[in-house]
Amino acid sequence: MDFNATFPPVESLIPEAARGLNAVMDRLCPGVFAGLLATDGTLLYANRAALDAIGAEPRQVLGRRFDETPWWEACERSREQVREALALAAAGVPARFDVRIGTADRGAIAIDFSLLPILDPEGRVACLVPSARDVSERDHAQRELLRIRHAVEQATDALFQVSADGQVRWVNAAAGRLLGYDIAELLGMRVAQIDAGIAEAEWPDRWQALQALGALRFETWVRHRSGTQIPVDVSISAVQDGEGSFAHVCVDDLRERRAADERIRQLTQHDLLTGLPNRALLADRLEMHLQSGAPSALLAVDLDRFRRVNDGLGSAAGDLLLQAAARRIAAALRPGDWIARPSSDEFVVLLRGVDEPAARRTAQNVLGAFAEPFDLDGETVHLTCSIGIALSPEHGDAVEQLLRRAGAALIRAKAAGRNGLALYRVAPFDEDPERWQLENALRGALARRELALHYQPQCEFRDGRIVGAEALLRWRSPTLGEVAPDRFIPVAEEIGMIGAIGDWVLAEACRQAAAWRRDGLRPLRIAVNLSARQLQQSGLAERVERLLDEQRLQGCALGLEVTEGMLIENLEQACATLARLRALGVEIALDDFGTGYSSLSYLRRLPVDLVKIDRSLVADVTDPRASITRAVIALAQGLDLRVLAEGVETAEQLERLASHGCDLAQGFVLGRPLTAAAFGELLCASDVSKPE
Question: What distance separates the 2 farthest-apart alpha carbons in the chain?
Answer without folding.
Answer: 132
